[in-house]
Amino acid sequence: MNQRPNFIVFMTDQQRADHLACYGNPIVQTPNIDSFAQRGTRFENFYVANPICQPNRAALATGQLTSVNGCRQNGIPLSLDSTTYADVLRSAGYRTGLVGKAHFQNVSPVAAKPPVLRGDGSAPPEPFHLSRRRQRRGPEYEWEIRSLWAETPDREVPLPYYGFDHLRMCIGHGDQVEGHYTKWLKDRLGEATDPRGRANAIDDGLKDAPQIWRTSVPEELYPTSYVGEEACAFLEAEDDRPFLLVVSFPDPHHPFTPPGRYFDLYDPADIELPESFDHPTWARNDLPEHIKRVYEIGAEKPDAYWPFHSDADSIRRMTALNYGAITMIDDWIGKITDALGATGRSQETIIVFMSDHGDYMGDHGTVLKHGLHTNGLIRVPLVWYDPTNPTAGVSAVQGNAIDFAPTLLQRAGLQCPAGMQGRDLLAADAEDLPVLIEDSGLAFASADGRTATRTLIHDGWRMSVFEGSDLGELYDLQVDPHEVRNLWSDPTAAEHKAAMLHLMIDRQIGLRDTSLIPTHQA
């Protein structure tokens, strides 16, 4: 056995915790993930550090809040100067691989808006018009732009890439994925027509719906299968070094296009709507205008990336297809762990299952993400199975994305880099700390760009504070788990509101940036 364990980290995209059987879902079939949960530790209270893809993946990789690592929203790459847990493992002799979605850099080439300069007088010349002159832009930050891969499928990414010395990327979602997958697909199609996208969808007689189409891509050519095949190939390579393999599936993120039998695997008629479905966000009068605007934008562009309200039948269909995509992932997890078993290294390999963030998926009549920090969006699965130290059970310790890197590094027998803010969730003395969630919001939802949200989770309560507003949210999740009674302005909850505000300030102070160390001592 290797002195240090191997790690396989399975990650999905935009999957809420309760869309797994081991988290109580009575319909979706996930026997392989459930098996790890039954033999290992299932974290009941694990939350994002930021409820959006790119920033939360940055938090997972660095063990730092997004306000510290600088990747505070989609569109800001993770700095190439950042130290990730993969960097640390690689430096300790690990073979490191990532197959699937990375999203450490921007996926769109849309130009940034000009910076807003305050005060009167002449503007400073570039680069002095920015307080931080070194911006994260240029060719070295363009390795995940989806359109560039469509144009040049055989691009070569300089390695290591954020600590990974083996890389096979998927960029995009559903059946609209580019990256290394692009060339793989083209090679297998030969002279056949590219079957991807709504324009090439199979007409199944059902009415068109936002984010839904029956893909023409067969199961064996779908991105989930590509990720699975590449993961197996990594494991089958002859190399005795301990390894880290991140298997990052682009699904079940919208659009909802699971292929073949997975499209019809679940009957929408069997899907129960969330209890909050009849308490729609659009009917509320206790939210600031910029939050309302987020959902208005979604209503205008329901086939884009913004949250939108939908009818019951459409949400049932989306949920059923979401389940189909999850079961396809679970089937591939079984094949990958079989490939691991064939190498004889199962007993020295820790298996982790997680997701980057959740989805409203019908909560308050809404789907997708952005906007409010409801439980389905911010609470995500974390399953940890260590065959050398099985600790079957459920952990109630409140965890956050910044805790993942320290937990993994400590299990590898490695100290955490200075400035990593999380803690080891598996430590016997792991504190049940309040969880702080950051969100820079959507700047275009407000004329002044002030759209940030800060959320605190602690002791069965959620509090969210909105930038530039005296409105907020406060929920007692123990008596109101579906978040339909906002206690922010309720005088009976005023004392608890004040205590939560104090805890939020205290947690922000405790999570200050300590990554820069003094060069001299006084």
Q: Any overview of this molecule?
A:
The chain is built from twelve helices and 17 strands. The chain has a nine-stranded mixed beta sheet, sandwiched between helices. 25% of the residues lie in helices and 16% in strands. The protein has 522 residues and is α/β, with parallel strands linked by helices. The protein has a single domain (6-110, 137-427), classed as Alkaline Phosphatase, subunit A, CATH 3.40.720. The longest helix is centred in the middle third of the chain and has 31 residues, at 312-342. Helix 7 (223-236) packs parallel to helix 9 (312-342). Belongs to the sulfatase family.
CATH class: Alpha Beta
CATH superfamily: Alkaline Phosphatase, subunit A
H-E string: EHEEHHHEHEEHHEHEHEEHEEEHEEEEH
Give the DSSP E fraction (strand runs of 2 or more residues): 15-25%
Query: How many domains comprise the coordinates?
Result: 1
Helix content: 25-40%
How many β-strand runs? 17
Query: Largest sheet, if any?
Result: 9 strands, mixed
User: Which geometry do the CA atoms define?
Assistant: globular
| CATH fold-type name | Alkaline Phosphatase, subunit A
Low-confidence stretches: none
* Number of helices, counting only DSSP H or I runs of 4 residues or more: 12
Average pLDDT, all residues: 94
Alpha carbon gyration radius: 22 Å
What CATH architecture do you see? 3-Layer(aba) Sandwich
> Strand sequence of the main sheet, in spatial order?
6-5-4-7-1-9-11-2-12
Class from helix and strand fractions: alpha/beta
Cα-to-Cα separation, first versus last residue: 48 Å
